[in-house]
Amino acid sequence: xxxSSRADWLVPVSLILLSAVPAIAGTVRLGDIAGGxxxxxxxxxxxxxxxxxxxxxxxxxVFCLLGAFQFSPGLRRRRLGWHRASGRVLLPAxxxxxxxxxxxxxxxxxxxxxxxxxxxxxxxxxxxxAVALVLACVExxxxxxxxxxxxxxxxxxxxxxxxxxxFTHLPLLLSGAEVTEPxxxxxxxxxxxxxxxxxxxxxxxxxGRRPARxxxxxxxxxxxxxxxxxR
Length: 231
Known about the structure:
10 helices; 72% helix; mainly alpha
């Protein structure tokens, strides 16, 4: 199996797995809302005002799961029409996910141990995600595909923050220590920062160029000390 064919399935599968925990948690939350779950201190704010949460879960799940296939090199080459058609769904879905994330930050009370730092992070990264995806739309209309690709990668990386935050919270969960506001802010911020750093590395990396081959020394007129023949 070539490295290209491995990337065709390895990249989307990896991104889907990264999305799995947030997608499952969101599905469970939607079930609670639809089934009229018993109000608790953790879910009362969602049950009394479900609209931003429902929009956020649905749009973010579509964006992260379907969007994973946009990063399959072979699928993008072989099914360019599908790539474009799904992009018309994914970019609006991502923008809705970003803006509803900001909406929820303002609409819902800040639960413990979240604090003002986590609140500010959600506003910052939600806004940055929306801006990145709007710029991706602008660049594709300009036919500037490299810049379109770069902005899509940035927006998708921020959107996958919830998946990476599962891992950045693991040290807190495994330690059994009480999750304080500073620790919570560090774990949340680390998830977004790690994704953005990886995205920028992907955008800036260039395949290595092979050095130009030197002409054979035996070519006419190129041997050391030889005099070029008259034409």
